[in-house]
From TrEMBL:
Transmembrane segments: none annotated. This is Oxygen-insensitive NADPH nitroreductase. Keywords: Flavoprotein, FMN, NADP, Oxidoreductase. InterPro entries: Flavin_OxRdtase_Frp, Nitroreductase, Nitroreductase-like. The gene is nfsA. Its EC number is 1.5.1.38. PANTHER family: NADPH-DEPENDENT OXIDOREDUCTASE, OXYGEN-INSENSITIVE NADPH NITROREDUCTASE. Belongs to the flavin oxidoreductase frp family. It comes from the Bacteria. Pfam families: Nitroreductase. Residues 10-164 form the Nitroreductase domain. One of its GO terms (molecular function) is FMN reductase (NADPH) activity.
Amino acid sequence: MNQTIEQLLGHYSVREFEDKPLSEEQIKLLVQSAQAASTSNFVQAYSIIGVSDKSIRRELSKIASNMGYVEKTGQFFVFVADLARNKRIAEAYEASVDSLETTEKFLVSVIDAALAAQNMAVAAESMGLGICYIGGLRNDSKKVSDLLHIPDYAIPLFGLTVGYPLQNSAPKPRMPESLIYHENTYEAKDKELYYAYDDIIRDYYKERTGGVRVEAWTEQIAKGMSKPTRLDLKSFIENKHLGTK
C-alpha cells in the first residue's frame, strides 16, 4: 500500500462542482499527464478538446441528459478517437491511407483515448480535484461532432468533467477480485458469488439513497441488457470512415 494506490482505491465520481475554472497551468498539467499514457506503436491516435465556452457546454449538457455538472465544472474535456491526424500525415507523404478504415486502427484510437483519459483522471484526483466521465455525449454523437467541428476519421467518445468538488462520497463497492481475475484461462464464475455481491450493492444503494433505491447489481445488469441503446452509433462511426473493414 502506498499513496498512489490509496488514491486509486478511494476513487468516486463527483457530480457537484464549484463554478470555478481551472487555471491554465492546471489544464496544461492535466493534458501533459494524459499524454504520458501508453499509446499503441506511439501512434497517439486521440485528441482532447477542452470546452470552456459556456454556451457549448450548455448544448453538450442537453445531449448528456441535462447533466448540470457538464456546464458547471472547472473544465470540461472531450476525448476524441482521432485518425484524421494520421490521414493528413499519410497524405503529406503520399502514402496509402487504406488501413485507417480497419477495425484494428479504430480500436487503437479508442484504446489510446481511454488510456489518456484515465491518466488525466488520476492526475486530477492527485491535485485535489474531482472527476466524472460523461458517456452521455454518445446520446447524439453527430451533434457533438458538429458542435466541436470534429472531422471525418475522428469521433467523440466521452467527456470528462474536472473541477473543485462540492461533494464528498465513498467508493462504490466493486466486484470482489475473485470475480474479475482469472489465472491462465478464462473461468466462468459461480453465480452464487454474484448473488453475494448483490447483497453488498443493495446495502450500498439503500444507505446512499435513504432506502429510495434498493437494487441488486445483477438486476441492474439484466435491466441494462434488455434494451439496446444508441443504435445510431454504428452508422455514425461508419459514416466517419472508421471501423468499416
